[in-house]
Design goal:
This protein folds into two domains: about 30-340, ABC transporter transmembrane region fold (Up-down Bundle); about 360-600, P-loop containing nucleotide triphosphate hydrolases (Rossmann fold, 3-Layer(aba) Sandwich), CATH 3.40.50.300. The protein has a six-stranded mixed β-sheet. A four-stranded antiparallel β-sheet has the order 2-1-4-5, with no helix packed on it. The chain is an alpha/beta fold and about 600 residues long. It is built from 21 helices and ten strands.
């Protein structure tokens, strides 16, 4: 089945960007109070640097005596101390306000991102299995790591500083118009040029960020696949092949990242040169204002120059902040892509409850086609399993056995026909109730990096230690767990790596025993056990199967003989149905498979 891969356009169109920003604004509404307070403090912090410009005029004209009608020495010193006190107070207030603004913004942003991270995980774990299969693990991992990190950097660092610098810029512009509106208007000739440069770089940065994020997703997928397939890689001697594949993805990410870095480093340089040209032009014009037109004095000129510097610095740094926010918008858009994906609803409104299941399972003309494929995996399957019956599914690889049992707990939804539980269409049942009545023991058991006891408890979280111990005894887990240093408290390692395959399988069986389900699905649950362990667990399985409707994907003769009925599947169809002896007597497809696979002839 073809894997889904999100491929963005060369540049995020303005419609998508605006929609992403609108969604972020809606997400941030619940923090409106803190953000409003942060904005107020950011305004105070942004006004702080303007105090320097305010102080220069009296400093040059009054204290230093640059203007006519100079003050006395005592008056100059008094004026100097007033200016010093003003600057000190203004900057202390600005520093405190900057701290408050940054903290409140960071708290709101981090809280928002933490909630989005939790929602992202919730969305993924509630993916339908078909939807989950469309995504590579590396792509989902990149959403949690790189994309959320882009948002974290933006809201924790760039957003509060951008707000503060915007206030400083606006205040400086107003001050320039108040000081000399003619020079201010002349300076604004350069504004469209600077704006065009920033807009162009923002577009290129958005495109570059898309490419870099896709490259890191490819790299993460390659890494995760390799780490999960180390034994296969070594068995086939494909270390160099995997190294070459990883190196290619690594170089692709390096190239994408460096192109993005070039844009990020070039943008402030270009803006700085444009601002320098504007400042030099202002120096010339201000000199004419003082020397030729005599409309300004030295204090006013230095005040205006200071305001120009105060305006140019936020504009130049703002280009970096805008770039960070553009990257954060890309990250947010990629996260919203996952949050908008379809999910299962464990308790959909109007769903029927399954409070006392009997375990009757019936298929009525059921067909299934995997998304993105044309060939049906199942074709008009019809049969009924009575409560307490054990049904073995037999057939060649790819016949549809696993797909069939995956329809029972609604891992997949049938594309045709109905799967019924106790006579009710499974699609109309509460998903939580349905799955609480089912236990699954896969061929490759999935264990968590917790203790043996916690892995068994996963079958029923409210189970007592005595119940867990009883399940472990029935599954023959105690035979090996009592010899471990910490007994049931022994940690099994990631995915149970510290245990053998047979031990992992027995823990999975104990988990199913503890769940005490009405419907049991065994994907050849004894395949990983040696003959000794299989004999020990056979009696426990007999007790487990009693009174439960059981579906067994069987590959061993001992498992098949335990079944009360056998379904032989081939090419997605039920070709034969009956008991072991009945099917052998027919001398059909099952008898031929038995002769080749089980009797050794």
């Amino acid at each position: 089945m073809k894997r889904f891969r999100y491929r963005p356009p060369e540049a995020m169109c303005s419609v998508e960007t605006k929609e992403t920003l609108r969604r972020l604004a809606r997400e941030a509404r619940r923090y409106a109070g803190r953000l409003a307070a942060a904005l107020f403090f950011a305004v105070l912090a942004g006004l702080g640097p303007l105090s320097y410009a305010k102080a220069l005029n009296p400093l040059f004209n009054d204290v230093l005596g640059a203007s006519h009608g100079a003050l006395s020495v005592a008056q100059r010193l008094r004026e100097l101390w007033i200016i010093i006190a003003f600057l000190l107070a203004a900057n202390v207030i600005a520093a405190a306000a900057q701290y408050c603004a940054s903290y409140l913004t960071a708290w709101s942003g981090q809280r928002l991102i933490a909630e989005m991270r939790a929602r992202l995980f919730e969305r993924i774990v509630h993916f339908p299995l078909a939807e989950f299969d469309r995504w590579r693990q590396g792509e989902l991992f990149a959403r949690f790591e790189q994309d959320l990190q882009l948002m974290t950097d933006a809201v924790s660092i760039s957003l509060p500083q951008l707000t503060q610098n915007t206030v400083t810029f606006v205040g400086a512009v107003i001050g320039m118009f108040v000081t000399d509106w003619r020079m201010a208007l002349f300076l604004f000739i350069f504004v469209p040029i600077v704006y065009a440069a920033v807009a162009r770089f923002s577009s290129l940065i958005t495109t570059g960020t898309h490419r870099a994020q896709e490259s890191i997703a490819d790299l993460s997928s390659t890494l995760i696949e390799a780490l999960g397939s180390v034994r296969t890689i070594k068995a086939f001697g494909r270390e160099q092949h995997e190294l070459a594949r990883f190196t290619n993805r690594n170089e692709a990410y390096f190239g994408s990242y460096m192109k993005l870095t070039q844009l990020l480093l070039t943008q402030p340089g270009v803006v700085s040169i444009l601002m320098l040209v504007a400042f030099l032009a202002i120096v010339v014009v201000s000199a004419l204002e003082v020397v030729v037109f005599q409309r300004l004095n030295i204090g006013q000129v230095f005040q205006f120059w200071t305001l120009v510097v105060l305006a140019s610095n936020p504009l130049n740094r703002g280009a970096n902040f805008v770039g960070d926010l553009a990257k954060a918008t890309v990250g947010a858009g990629r996260i919203f892509t996952v949050l908008d994906a379809p999910v299962e609803n464990p308790a959909a409104p109007g769903a029927q409850r399954l409070l006392a299941p009997c375990g009757e399972v019936s298929f009525a003309e059921v067909s299934f086609i995997f998304p993105g494929t044309e060939e049906p995996a199942l074709r008009q399957i019809s049969f009924a399993a009575r409560p307490g019956e054990t049904v073995a599914l037999v057939g060649p690889s790819g016949a549809g056995k696993t797909t069939l049992v995956n329809l029972i707990p609604r891992f997949y939804e049938p594309t045709g026909g109905r799967v019924m539980i106790d006579g009710v269409d499974a699609r109309s049942l509460s998903l939580a109730d349905l799955r609480s009545a089912i236990a699954l023991v896969p061929q490759e058991p999935q264990l968590f990096g917790e203790s043996v006891e916690e892995n068994i408890r996963y079958g029923r979280l409210d189970a007592t230690p005595a119940e867990i111990r009883r399940a472990a005894e029935l599954a023959n887990v105690t035979e090996f767990v009592d010899e471990l240093p910490d007994g049931m408290a022994t940690h099994v390692g990631e995915r149970g790596v510290r245990l053998s395959g047979g031990q992992r399988q027995r823990i999975a069986i104990a988990r199913a025993i503890l769940r005490d389900p009405r419907i049991l699905i065994l994907d050849e649950a004894t395949s990983a056990l040696d003959s000794h362990s299989e004999r020990l667990i056979a009696q426990a399985l007999d007790h487990l199967l009693a009174g439960r409707t059981t579906f067994i994907i069987a590959h061993r003769l001992s498992t098949i003989r335990r079944a009360t009925r056998i379904l032989y599947l081939e090419a997605g169809r039920v070709i034969e149905e009956g008991s072991h002896q009945d099917l052998l007597a027919r001398n059909g497809a099952y008898a031929r498979l038995y002769a080749v696979q089980f009797s050794g002839t």
